[in-house]
Task: inverse folding
């Protein structure tokens, strides 16, 4: 799952990814004066910043160490100074959010029998911001990429992204980390694989000559991942010894006791909060997985989180409150635009022609309007008009209405009378072959011109003795993909089958490659 996290991107920007730079970071870059007790003070503030010795920090880390090793070296020291001297504001902010999320993290880690200190990984990933989005489009507290989120059943659609749901994404992160630990047998290696993907960790192991520890493969890992595990160690230290470095959180945030109500109508969350005498963003903040501050039309039984204290009042006045908080989509008024005759003719072509049959086309992965229009011998404008599509975005498994000219062949009438749910755009070779070539029509080959495509299918079917070739499923390799996670995504097809089907000599994949997966 190769991604640039909120924190590691910042650390890399400031140049803390290498040993030399980490050593430089032990000296504050701001003007300071020397005072007794090894304390420095900022020139423009009165905030005292203690600077501890290596021996003391190493001793504190050894006391904090539990199941995950907390190794001390120059890289770790440089990052500890970053969080306790150079960016104290960052540490103070995450300390303020700690009471809000750590109890929930601890509950799920205990449920999966995993090390408690893994809760600090969410700080490295997102600074405890449930709506955090990285430059690589990783999302949420645990920074899931879209494909990895789907692997762990985090729903992503036009109004909902469960990568931003704290509870569901934490459950998914526990399952993913446990899988990585089983794969590498080390929590440090599992953390590295969580950041850059198991494929990159396996490559680093191979390049190191078979070493299977994080610091053994450190030089062969991507630059960001080299700063990732040291950042984890540094944050474990900084958050446990913040007070020793004179870092105090100002406004601690605590979880609100919540209840859920099932919603099956459009609801404006801001209006609902005002109806319940709450701050206008309160309910939206309790439901960060919603992409917008409303629940749209045609959503059934959505479990909306509300403060438990508001539940009795809502139950007593449910109909009135929900009616007042109903979401109304903004009405977009389009002014008429003068059109040239050619444009008006193009618009006329969009109308549903007479003597047509309605079909449904199911959108496949990597489909687009131009591709579908070309395949179905229609125009993009027709597809948009028939399906009321304003932009160019399509969703996988979306059904598109397509109108085809109605056949005048008596044999094809039987196909037309088939129930609409069973109608498809691709004629079965067996169905065409069953007509035994009895196609009537005025052209040279004894068939109407509109049945030329059907005749071609019939000839092909007869040549193949009625067999139908199943279309292959193709996967386009994305950054961070490995044969292992691709095999999980496609009904657990084995890695060996993927290698054999694609004639791969090794496990190395490159973005843009096309793999046969079914």
Result:
């Amino acid at each position: 799952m190769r991604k640039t996290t909120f924190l590691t991107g910042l650390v890399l920007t400031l140049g803390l990814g290498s040993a030399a730079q980490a050593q430089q970071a032990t000296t504050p870059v701001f003007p300071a004066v020397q005072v007794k007790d090894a304390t420095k003070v900022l020139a423009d503030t009165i905030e005292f910043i203690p600077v501890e010795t290596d021996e003391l920090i190493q001793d504190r880390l050894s006391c904090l160490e539990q199941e995950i090793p907390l190794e001390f070296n120059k890289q770790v020291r440089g990052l500890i100074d970053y969080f306790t001297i150079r960016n104290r504001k960052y540490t103070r902010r995450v300390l303020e959010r700690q009471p809000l999320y750590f109890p929930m993290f601890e509950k799920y880690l205990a449920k999966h029998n995993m090390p408690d200190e893994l809760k600090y990984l969410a700080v490295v990933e997102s600074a405890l911001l449930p709506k955090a989005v990285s430059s690589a489009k990783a999302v949420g507290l645990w920074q899931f990429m879209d494909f990895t989120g789907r692997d762990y059943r985090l729903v992503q659609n036009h109004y909902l992204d469960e990568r931003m749901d704290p509870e569901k994404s934490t459950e998914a992160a526990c399952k993913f980390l446990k899988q990585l630990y089983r794969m590498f047998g080390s929590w440090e290696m599992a953390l590295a694989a969580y950041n850059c993907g198991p494929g990159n960790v396996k490559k680093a192991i191979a390049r190191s000559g078979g070493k299977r520890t994080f610091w053994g493969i450190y030089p062969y890992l991507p630059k960001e991942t080299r700063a990732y595990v040291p950042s984890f160690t540094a944050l474990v230290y900084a958050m446990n010894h913040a007070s020793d470095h004179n870092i105090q959180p100002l406004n601690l945030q605590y979880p609100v006791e919540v209840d859920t109500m099932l919603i099956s109508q459009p609801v404006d969350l801001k209006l609902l909060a005002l109806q319940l005498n709450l701050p206008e963003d309160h309910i939206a903040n309790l439901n960060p997985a919603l992409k917008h501050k409303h629940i749209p039309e045609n959503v059934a039984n959505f479990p909306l989180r509300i403060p438990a204290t508001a539940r009795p009042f809502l139950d007593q006045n449910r109909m009135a409150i929900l009616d007042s908080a109903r979401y109304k989509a903004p009405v977009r008024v389009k002014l008429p635009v003068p059109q040239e005759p050619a444009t008006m003719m193009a618009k006329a072509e969009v109308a549903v022609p007479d003597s047509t049959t309605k079909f449904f086309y199911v959108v496949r992965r990597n489909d687009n309007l131009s591709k579908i229009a070309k395949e179905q011998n229609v125009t993009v404008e027709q597809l948009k008009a028939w399906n009321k599509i304003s932009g160019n975005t399509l969703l996988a498994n979306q059904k598109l209405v397509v109108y085809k000219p109605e056949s005048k062949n008596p044999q094809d009438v039987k196909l037309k009378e088939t129930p609409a749910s069973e109608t498809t755009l691709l004629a079965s070779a067996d169905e065409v072959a069953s007509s035994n070539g009895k196609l009537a029509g005025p052209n040279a080959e004894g068939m109407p011109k509109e049945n030329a495509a059907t005749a071609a299918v019939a000839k092909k079917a007869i040549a193949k003795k009625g067999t139908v070739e199943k279309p292959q499923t193709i996967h386009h390799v994305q950054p961070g993909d490995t044969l292992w996670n691709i095999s999980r995504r496609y009904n657990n097809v084995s890695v060996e089958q993927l290698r054999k089907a694609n004639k791969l000599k090794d496990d190395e994949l490159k973005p843009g490659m096309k793999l046969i997966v079914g």
User: Anything to note?
Assistant: DSSP finds 24 helices and eleven strands in the chain.
